[in-house]
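Deliverable D2.4 — example input (structure tokens):
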């Protein structure tokens, strides 16, 4: 079972119809403020391909977020490998279209992602990370119970430090399965 229902959301595998709103989201300067530039349609589609290939191969990944009765595709939330930080590490991540911020959807979907990761996938730990200035993102991390680990802060290896020096340093948040259960 890879689709999950929450109170307000359907977290599901991706459809072809998601690609257009996904590309629009990835080309929105406000959504992409803390990323390395906007994505072309081609790069956006390639990312969607990687997400679906990861689901096929591993049985977990980034869900397409649907708000039934409101919008068929609001963005993505879910689990994604972060081997480039620490081998075997898995992060919980999110990106929603601007119109769908401030409803608590990221928080609701992220809680379901933790449950799925710790129970169905059997992960021992889930992390998340962002640049310190992405307050909306680290506030989701705090709301879902992840704890800041200052000793884990790191320079992101995939950031072009010459072009985006302000996006290099990342703050790390963690949650272990035993802490989540408690
Ligand atoms: C990060 C991101 C998903 C956070 O979105 P968000 O709307 O702030 O987060 P949530 O969906 O959890 O919503 C929380 C807000 O909804 C409000 N809210 C309303 N109903 C709520 C409910 N039932 N439960 C929780 N919060 C609720 C909260 O008070 C909070 O309000 P605020 O906007 O005044 O702070 C969004 O900003 C985004 O997509 N950013 C661009 C991509 C990005 O940077 N991703 C992270 C990369 S590390």
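Example output (designed residues):
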């Amino acid at each position: 079972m890879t689709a999950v229902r929450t109170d307000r959301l359907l977290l599901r595998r991706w459809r072809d119809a998601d690609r257009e709103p996904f590309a629009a989201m990835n080309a929105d300067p406000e959504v992409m403020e803390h990323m390395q530039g906007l994505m072309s349609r081609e790069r956006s589609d390639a990312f969607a391909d990687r997400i679906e290939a990861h689901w096929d191969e591993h049985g977990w990944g980034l869900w397409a977020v649907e708000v039934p009765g409101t919008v068929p595709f609001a963005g993505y939330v879910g689990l994604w490998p972060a081997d480039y930080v620490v081998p075997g590490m898995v992060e919980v991540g999110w990106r929603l279209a601007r119109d769908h911020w401030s409803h608590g959807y990221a928080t609701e979907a992220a809680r379901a992602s933790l449950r799925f990761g710790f129970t169905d996938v059997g992960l021992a730990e889930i992390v998340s990370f962002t640049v310190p200035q992405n307050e909306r993102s680290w506030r989701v991390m705090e709301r879902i119970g992840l704890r800041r680990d200052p000793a884990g802060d790191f320079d992101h290896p995939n950031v072009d430090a010459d072009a985006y020096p302000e996006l290099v340093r990342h703050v790390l948040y963690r949650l272990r399965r035993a802490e989540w259960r408690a």
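The chain has five helices and nine strands.
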